[in-house]
Amino acid sequence: MVGEIKKLFDRRQKPPYQAGTNLLLLLVLSVVIGAGVSYSTIGFMQAFDRVVNWVYFDWNDSPSGRYTHKVDPRNKLTLDFRGNNTNNLQSLKQTHWPTSGRCTIVTTREGVRQAPVTGEWEFRDKRVHVAIDNQPIDLQFVGKHLVPIAADANATQLADHLPVAIPNHVIQFNYKQGSFTDVPKWHILVALIGGGLFIGLLYLTFKLPRGHGPADAIIARINNDGIMPIREGISTALVCISSIGLGASVGRYGPAVHLGATLGSGFGQAFNLGRTNTVTFLGCGIASAIATSFNTPIAAVIFTHEAIIGHYSLRAFAPITIAAVAGNAVAIHHGR
Questions:
Q1: What global pTM score does this model have?
Q2: Boundary-marking domain end, from 131, 156, 181
């Protein structure tokens, strides 16, 4: 088994084969490729999310969030919350907050930004206790809104500054955004420098002469019968996971396309399906990866045919379309 896997990974180039695979079988296999590449693409995206979380946010105990409510173009309300918690980026992603922290309230009236107000807040006994200028104000939930318990002027004014919230064991606001402003500048600098050294080490370890992307899929289709080196594709994916997660100013489009092309091509190589079908499966992998990444199956099909395959024959169009739809369905099922 290990020997067969090694042969697959070491396979670089094969002579062209005669195309004769039944079209129905081709369509069935395109569903398998679409779903498989979609799961791989989802795992790829989750991997660099975890790298970002671990490198930048797991070391930070005070993530912040911002809530903005616009009344009209000249009047808006901005609340910057800083919570005392240790759940880090995951808590922000799930829109959950701790039970206490600090809050800065900034109001813009008629285009004029008012002086910020800072106070402590705490959630206990199903009430929100806010202290501004050493004056405690208690608020309670009425439906989904926070309403002051004491009908004094200060409480009424503060109530206008509070977001819509949902009563729970923690405060759950409708919108929150994690911020790198919570990460110390020295931490970001060290992470970027260390990340650059680590990426260089990966290039040396995997013996990659350069970075790879969508252009390699086009070259493989033209010059190499649609065959892409599996080892090179997997190594490139690992490098991209690390570089994106560590802060490189690149997107996931190129790596996702290259990974999808590698997996699709590898599927054709593994089953010795011939040049025509290998090129088609290469396109299936690309279409599925794009559809999964951006939830755009139609654009994925058009891009694959225009930029990679170079034609719209039915034998290629049908499998690639099915793979894109299958990949998008998997992504939607998993909440992407």
A1: 0.63
A2: 181
